[in-house]
Write a structure and sequence with these properties.
Layout lengths: L7 E3 L1 H19 L5 E6 L2 H17 L5 E4 L30 E9 L3 H11 L6 E9 L11 E5 L6 E6 L1 H4 L3 E6 L2
Parallel strand pairs: 2-3, 2-4, 4-5, 5-6
Antiparallel strand pairs: 1-8, 7-8
Pfam families: Pribosyltran
Family: Belongs to the purine/pyrimidine phosphoribosyltransferase family. PyrR subfamily.
GO molecular function: uracil phosphoribosyltransferase activity
Length: about 180
Amino acid sequence: MPQANAPCLLDAKQMEVHLQRLCREISAVFGSDASIALLGIRTRGLYLAERLKAMLESNLQKEIPLGILDITLYRDDLSELAGSPIVRPTEIPFSLKDRSVILVDDVLFTGRTIRAALDALLDHGRPKRVWLAVLVDRGGRELPIQAEFVGIKMDVAMDSRVSVHMKDVDGEDAVLLESRS
C-alpha cells in the first residue's frame, strides 16, 4: 500500500523520459539483432517490459518477443515469508536457445531478485546472453549484480524503499521514496 505524502522521485513525465532513454540505449545495442527478447519480472517489471516492448517495436520496426517470469519459488527468503506465497505462472512463449534476453525489473536493490530471476530463467532454457534493464538502480547491492540498462541511478538510504507505481496496476505512474516499516 502506498504511503501518504511519500516524496516523489519521478513523476509520470520523468518516468516516460527515462523509459524513452532506456529504449534508445537498448535499440542502439540490439538494432540489428534478431535474437532479442524481453522477460518481465512479475509484477512491475512485467508492466515496464510491456512498455519497453511497444517502444522498441516502434523504434526498431520489428516484433520483440515478450515473456513473463515469476520468481516466487526461487526467492532465498521464501521460508521467511509470512503466509502462503502467491505463485503465478512463468510464461515464456518462445525458445530461449540462441536468444539475447533482457530481464526487466522496476528497482535494482540487493541483487537477490535478479539472482532468483536468473535461477528461474535457467530452468526454462539456456539463452545466448542475459542482459538486465531496470528503471531505478537504488544501490545497496548484497550480490555482485549490475544492470546494463538503467533508467535512473540514485543512492537511497537503507531504511527507505523505492516504490514504482504503474498506471496499469496503481492508477498512476510515479516513483516514490517510502520509509520501510
